[in-house]
Amino acid sequence: MKKWLFSAMFAACALAGSGQAPQSFDYKPDFKALKVDASRLARIDSLLTDFVRRGELPHALTFVAKDGQVIHNKAFGWRDMESRAPLQKDDLFRMYSQTKAITTVALMTLYEQGKFQLDDPVSKYIPEMTDRVIVKKEDDGTYVTRKAASPVLIRHLLSHSSGITGEWSAGQPKYATLEEYVKQLVKQPLLFDPGTDWHYHPSADVWGYLVEYFSGRPLQEYVQEVILEPLGIKDMAYYFDDSCRPRFVAMYKKGKGGIEPVEMWSGRDPFGPDRTYAAGGTGLSGTIEGYARFCQMIANYGVFNGRRILGRRTLEIMGENCLPHPNSNGKDFSFGIGFRVLPEPDAAGGNISRFTPMPNPGSLIWGGMANTDYLIDRREGLIILLYTNRIPATGIWQKFLNTVYQVLE
Fold first, then answer.
1. Which of 385, 360, 211 is nearest to 286 (CA)?
2. Which is nearest to 62 in space by CA: 76, 42, 83?
3. What is the mean pLDDT of residues 276-300?
4. Cα-Cα-Cα-Cα dihedral sign, residues 336, 338, 107, 182
């Protein structure tokens, strides 16, 4: 790590540990003190307005805070294009894989309680965990396998390097509990030897079940009491009362004649009668301000709203790359524990592959399938969120980041 980057990270750590990290959002920013050129914020508005005007996006909602001061939080477009209901800043979005970072933090709170080690084999707690790797898939759907070179560790789950594969989770209707689903999932042979590559998603439900195993409580209950309530996050959950239905943003997809509505939920129907199942990888819905609180806690190295969720050192470890380079997602694609970690430029000085070079190395980033995205840049003191419920991606996220970073003096 370059000396300047280490120094910047150390300064940020010291700030968070000293109690000076912001504990609430200030919606009246001091642009001069922040060294933000407020006149250039209009470029963000122009970009998003243009995407909505051209019909590429049904709506967009921003939340950008620097050192806890909110410098941009605006709604564009329509909650529901058909009824022409304007998008509101407290509307509810389907967050899909944004669930993963929250359930990761839930598991890491149990790590801090001494319940497990990151290098513990998963089979120590889930005996059904396979030790076989796929060599060949036969025409009849069966596999030729061999013994894995090493066991699946808990750190492999959290970095998506376990090799676990299987049916898309999202709360499979045929499974009554997360435990039932996971114990079937982990019996299937692995795609590769643990720790040797990256394969996204299925292992998240395994770590979600481990939250239940170590805490002795349902996942959604533990997340609510240990993360959401202490951070003051309201209106974020797996399931909602019918009274919240009007606040849910309509979901859209790209069609032949433009974008069109599509009925697609993150996990089970959040208004359905069966509310016992919660997944580790998807299923949460909520407001952008609620998730911004979670991001600010991460930026603060574990504390926000006057409540500490994780220790500083734990967050430092979570921001370290766990993947080999190269891997199946790129020559410099890096992932830590729960987050993608943006790497430093390569030795030749090349930019970060397949991403805008604006965010600093070490920034944490991810998002949800319907394009609810977030980035945490501790060096700049920034948390950046852009929400839409539209599939597939449009390229707006990278352009949006450019318009955010250009306001910095």
1. 385
2. 76
3. 96
4. negative
